[in-house]
Amino acid sequence: MKRPPPPETMPSPRRKRALSSEERVLWESVAKSIKPLHKKPRADKAEPLEDEPPAASAKSEKRSSRPPALSQELKTPAVKATAPPPLAPIGRRERSQISRGRKDIDARLDLHGMTQTRAHRALLNFLRTSSEDGMTFVLVITGKGRTVGPDSERGVLRRQVPEWLSLPEFRSLIVGFEQAHIGHGGDGALYVRVRRAR
């Protein structure tokens, strides 16, 4: 069985050394020459602790303050994104001209049988292309949905497409939309006026 070492050989706990008067004068001259990162008025000078060496307190000050470039970035206000323009109804005269065939429909998109995800993607790509190609009026066919039988439903895309067209991502591509004439699909289709790309 081992015996504990005699008391004189046990290591004594280390004490932190206090600053000498020369070190304190040097520390104060360095502290006066430093410019603050922020222009806020500082509170009364805090005397450095006697137990803390100058290098340690300088490190703690560096950690707590941000570099000037970063603090300036945080102060600059974020640029506001411009809101997409509101939708406008298609004029009565233009709608009449389209339904009678006096004004051409530049392109058609049939969403029959597509899932909502696929239809959303197809509609967005179709309208982007139509806008870039300088088209004016396009026809989007949603279908009327199943109306006969025990599983009758009103048509998911028929409900969803008008809601999608009101979203900001679509409003930047279109001027407005309205239900199509019965000759072009009636309530299962929409006339969409495309906003031309600038």
Outline of the structure:
The chain is of the alpha+beta class and 198 residues long. It has a domain at 92-194: Ribosomal Protein S8, Chain: A, domain 1, CATH 3.30.1370. The chain has seven helices and four strands, in the order ααααβαβααββ.
Class per helix and strand makeup: alpha+beta
CATH topology of one domain: Ribosomal Protein S8, Chain: A, domain 1
Mean pLDDT: 76
How helix-rich are the residues, as a percent range? Answer: 25-40%
Strand order of the largest sheet: 1-2-4-3
Rg, Å, rounded: 37 Å
- General shape: elongated
Instruction: Give the distance, in angstroms, between the N- and C-terminal Cα atoms.
Output: 92 Å
The total count of strands amounts to 4
> Uncertain runs with pLDDT below 50, 5 residues or more?
none
Order of helices and strands: HHHHEHEHHEE
Please give the count of helices. Answer: 7
How would you sum up this structure, described in words?
With 198 residues, the chain is α+β, with helices and mostly antiparallel strands. It has a domain at 92-194: Ribosomal Protein S8, Chain: A, domain 1, CATH 3.30.1370. The protein is 36% helix and 11% strand. The chain is built from seven helices and four strands; from the N terminus they run H-H-H-H-E-H-E-H-H-E-E. The relative contact order is 0.12.
Based on the model shown, name its key terms:
198 residues; alpha+beta; Ribosomal Protein S8, Chain: A, domain 1; 4-stranded mixed sheet; elongated
How is the topology of this model organized?
Blueprint: H1 21-33, H2 54-64, H3 68-75, H4 92-99, E1 107-110, H5 116-132, E2 137-141, H6 156-165, H7 168-171, E3 174-179, E4 189-194
Parallel strand pairs: 1-2
Antiparallel strand pairs: 2-4, 3-4
